[in-house]
Design a protein that fits this description.
Length: about 280
């Protein structure tokens, strides 16, 4: 099972690999930069070399970069949209330099201007970025929880966007279990998991799945609340994760983005996921 965490790059970016090894991860997600700012430091050649060497030596693979929080590819606001496209291009370039094969992005919010306009903005941003940055990095579109004005909470919405991308080889899907559940896709019983994956296959195609964000949900089914919870302690429950991990989703790289608090650490969430997978 490929199981890992979203880990900090504090210090230097290669430290994320050290942290993955320390926590017994065999896959990894990280930011490549400050996730709360528009500007990034120029990549240091020494850090890039150390990062690539540590990934190769550790066997932690695949590695995923997550886009910064500020990004909104669906934004009707020209300044935010322009800066978002610049960041997307930059992240595609940075990932290639680090030999990271995947970049994960949220699809953003249309801010009340409607899904159609939001989808057009997203498609234009991705196509322009792919034309400007020609490499083999694959952009993974992440499903959302269905909060107000958000893009990509339904399989149909994601498929519509993906179908408009010119370079089909450079786009895939990241499936977040918390977001899917909050958006109304049941993931508790074995039958529910199978039905949800059947719907995904019919609308998008299971072959497009490259990554699973394995998170429990504080909100109930269809609540549209984007709040991650410890594995098995939320509304998906331990039963749900046993069934998720036995399904096709369990054969994909699994990245936990669970809380760290007095109830459980990130390592303890990894342990719980492994325990449920073996039951």
């Amino acid at each position: 099972m490929k199981l890992g965490l979203h880990l900090s790059i504090m210090g230097t970016i290669d430290r994320a690999v050290d942290r993955a090894v320390e926590r017994n991860c065999n896959t990894l997600q990280m930011f490549s930069r400050n996730p709360r700012g528009w500007h990034s430091k120029t990549q240091d050649a020494g850090e890039i070399e150390r990062f690539r060497a540590k990934v190769k030596k550790s066997g932690v693979w695949p590695v995923f970069i997550h886009m910064p929080y500020l990004l909104n590819l669906a934004s009707p606001k020209e300044d935010v949209y322009r800066k978002s496209v610049i960041v997307l291009k930059d992240e595609l370039h940075r990932a290639d330099a680090l030999n990271v094969p995947y970049v994960v992005t949220h699809l953003g919010s249309h801010l009340g201007h409607g899904k159609k306009k939001g989808a057009t903005r997203i498609v234009d941003a991705i196509n322009a970025s792919f034309r400007a940055i020609e490499n083999d990095v694959i952009l993974l579109l992440e499903n959302t929880a269905g909060t107000r004005n958000s893009m990509g909470s339904s399989f149909e919405d994601i498929e519509y966007i993906a179908s408009k991308i010119e370079d089909k080889e450079r786009v895939g899907i990241c499936f977040d279990t918390c977001h899917a559940f909050a958006a109304g896709y049941d993931l508790v019983s074995q039958g529910a998991v199978e039905y949800t994956l059947q719907r995904f296959d019919e609308v998008i195609g299971l072959e497009e799945l490259r990554l699973v964000h394995l998170n429990d949900s504080k909100g109930g089914l269809g609540s549209r609340i984007d709040r991650h919870e410890h594995i098995g302690m939320g509304k998906i429950t331990e039963r749900g994760f046993r069934n998720i991990l036995k399904s096709r989703l369990g054969k994909l790289p699994l990245i936990l983005e669970t809380p760290i608090d007095e109830r459980r650490s990130d390592v303890e969430n990894l342990r719980k996921a492994r325990e449920l997978a073996e039951q």
